[in-house]
Structure formats: C-alpha cells, structure tokens
Design goal:
By secondary structure, the protein is mainly alpha-helical. It contains ten helices and two strands; from the N terminus they run H-H-H-H-H-H-H-E-E-H-H-H.
Amino acid sequence: MTKSSMIQVLTMLFFVITVQILALAVTPAISESDSRVFQDPTSTSNPFVYMILILAFTALLLLAIKMNQGWIISGFIQLSIALSIYYLAVAFLPPLFALVPTAVVLLLIRYYPEWYVIDAFGIAVSAGISSLFGVSMTTLPTLMLLVILAVYDAISVYKTRHMVSLAEGVIKMKAPLLFVVPKSRNYSFRKDQSLLTKEGSGNQGEGQAADIKGKRGAYFLGLGDAIIPTILVISANTSLPVGGLFGVNIPAIGAMLGTYLGFFILMTTSRDRPQAGLPFLNSGVILGFLVGCAIAGIRPF
C-alpha cells in the first residue's frame, strides 16, 4: 500500500471513529426523545424485520435501475435523507424548528453535492441512524443482526453480486450514501465525469469496502460500513451496566476497538475486486464487544 493510499485509509478510519464518537454523544438526547425503531428492544424478531425491510428496499432499487427509472431511486433517497436528518434534529429541536436543518441539508445535497458536503452529511446521518437503532435493540438482537448482515453482505457481493450492481447505479447518480475521500486537493465530486463511464463506475455501497486501486479521482466507503458496527457500540453502552471511561462502558469500548481492528484487516485484503466490508467489520466489533464483556465481568445476555 502506497503512502497516498495509507492516508486515504486513515481518513476513512477517521470517519468511522468520528461516527462512533458522535453517536455516543447524541444518544442521551435520542434516548430522552423516546424515538425508537422497534417497540420491544429485547425481541429477537427485530433483526428479521430489519432484513425484510432491507431486502424489499434493495429489490425495489434494483428494479428501478434495471428499468432505468432513476427518479424512483432519487425519490427514495431524498425521502430517506429527509427522515434521517429530521429524526436527528428533532432530538435537539422542537419538531417545527427541526424542519429547518432538514430543508437546508436537502437543498445542499440536491444543488451542491460536493464531496465535503456529502462527507459531513454522512457523518451526521450515520451517527444519528446508529444511535437510533442502537437504543432500539439490546445486545442479543443486535448481535443477531450483525451476523445476518455479514452473511448477507458476503453473498450479495461475492455470489449474487447484486449489491455491486446497486452500488454502481447509486454512485453514478452521485447519491449521498457513501463517504468520498479525494485523491487530490482539486478533486470535485459533482464534476467527476469518470463516475458516468463503465470503467470508472463505482463499486461501493452500504456494507462494501472502499475502492483503493480504482482509476477514479476519489476513494469511496459505504455509510453502512460505519453505521452497522456502531449499532452494537450504542446498544452495548445503553443496555449494559454503566462505567468505563467518559461514560462509555468497557464492552462498548471493546466494540469500538474491535471495529478498528476489523477495518485494518479489511484494508489489507485484495483490491482486485469489490470487497464485502461487513464480514470483517462485524467480526471485529463482535469480538471486541465479547472481550470487553469478559474484561468487565459482564454477562451480555
């Protein structure tokens, strides 16, 4: 790995670390707002409901791409963005005032989707979504979800490859579903025409690793690679006994460190084809979580 590539890798790791720290910071406000994805956080059916929603959403987007109906994809993405920003803002602002940052972000992404706008949005939304799902599930259903998603990610990237097709379609649209790390200072994501060519099309979406050897002007990391492991970090910190460091308990700290270990292992894998990120990241965060529980003498289930 070259020095330049190492800088990009460390930048992407910085994004993941920032998402986890920000998610921990906003969790008290989200908890107090009583916003929950699932009614019963302890239910082991929650991961399967989550997967059904993912499969339905993925099937709809793939169908829209195949039928060349980009407006359907754009509409779903815009709706998802609006809901994500609103739920994060409403934890700190009255519902009416929360509409203001929601509208500002939508306008920026719609009319000025530059890489630093996309990255700032990605950090904020990833932290909010991670926190919202983390407080909505205790550790057992969260662990089940991470295992299911790791298997699904591997199958969808290496076997069926439908996640690769979905990622290519989404990146061509320059949708804000990824982190963008420029290779040079003068790079412009919104002016990058290489994304529109077959040779330069992206191969990264949620749950896929960043492209290190691509010929494009930037590297990409799907938001899912930051969101999914962070869900366990938040779940561990909210559903297990408090303590540790700066209000973060030992299992959550272990989960964070495990995420970073999984990330570095992922970055050492072959770059000759798209890589499924969640098998590495989820394995790391689960291992770190279990080690943290052992150190703290906490039974996670």
